Amino acid sequence: MTPATPVQDGPIRREQRYLGDRGVIALVALLSAFVPLSTDLYLPALPTMGNYFSVSVHLTNLTLILFFIFFSIGLLFWGPLSDKYGRRPVLLVGLTIYILASGSCALSENIYLLILSRVLQAIGGSAASAVATAMVKDLFDGRQRESVLALVQSMVVIAPAVAPVLGAYMLNFTSWRGIFWILAGIGLFSMAGSLALSETLTHRYTGTVVMAIGRLGTVLKNPGFTSLLLTFSLVSSASLAFVGASSYIYQNGFGLSEQGFSYFFALNALGLISGPLLYLRLSRSFNRNSIITACFVGMTISGGLVCWLGNLGPWAFALSLLPASILGSGARPAGAHLMLEQQKEDTGSASALIGCAGLLLGSLGMILISQDWENTILVLGLVNLVIGVLCGSLWLLISKLKIAQDVPDSVR
Predict the structure, then answer these.
(1) Could you give the CA distance from residue 158 to residue 33 in angstroms, rounded to a whole number?
(2) Please, are residues 118 and 74 in contact by the beta-carbon 8 Å criterion?
(3) What are residue 204's DSSP bridge partners?
(4) In the prediction, which pLDDT does 293 show?
(5) Which of 15, 54, 102, 378 is surrounded by the fewest CB atoms within 10 Å?
(6) Interval 279-321: pLDDT, tens
(7) Superfamily covering domain 12-401
(8) Residue 95 to residue 106: CA distance in whole angstroms
């Protein structure tokens, strides 16, 4: 292994001259929210965009599906580069691409140019997510890191709660093009915060770029990391399947307006917000393993409720799916913390793999739910049920065989 070269003596986390600890956490939350912001803000406009370009639902959904796929690929590129060149330079380059691509989306005159612009937007935006989790590992340790991850997760899912409502409201005054100009503005705001950021990486990888990217394979050879990565990334298949189908279920299936859809989508997002906070509260009285097991059991039960009651109406569907949203997001801070603890070096690569695996498996969920199903709600319920059973089984196996490094709940 090529040794790392110190960039600066001692920890940097006390030396954020302009942002401070709270500013850094807020910036990390914003950077982590690039996926929901870049997708959920324009979800209410998806049917309208399909009509505008006179294209099929499947072609319109490519603006979502390809975004997730290329966002995932970008993570694998930017993460290792941030281990070599630092978090801040990678962040600034990626945000520049994101801002320009967002403007291109707004100016697109056909669906194919929009799809291409979305691909570039994904590649640029992935730099933000690639360094966000790595920065948390750079700056915080033990239980403090787990608390920050939970806080960031809660702040992140405010974006899906607010974005569809804001997107639907904007459609009363502007077209879908205005939404992409808003995303360009968010990119500019993130750029300002990133310019004020002091570099968080203390030791840089000194090998070549190819060798840096090759560290992804080294990380994947760690069985503890890889087993946890598969287990917790599968949850994204269920959550992103809902994202891909939600506007069609509520608007085309239940006949709600764009505004009405945004309110029900926000209800689901509020469940996502409460999940990490619920985990933090429960972790004071119960051990981490038991909480994670309960989350996967709850997802399974919720999936069954969606299959049974989901077709009765929008409220029945939303309330039966809500436990899966709460418990799925509740398991994520613990999962991210455990995965980061398995890897003492190559934090950027580990962070990239965490983001990439979640998005790739989430994209598979979106592709699955986008097929011509006779009963989309039933399929969505089955997805949650099966994912709950599968993740729960994998988690119990990992715990029983002690595949992953044990991280005591009391570590700080």
Answers:
(1) 9
(2) no
(3) 5
(4) 94
(5) 54
(6) 888 988 888 889 999 999 999 999 999 999 999 999 999 999 9
(7) MFS general substrate transporter like domains (1.20.1250.20)
(8) 17
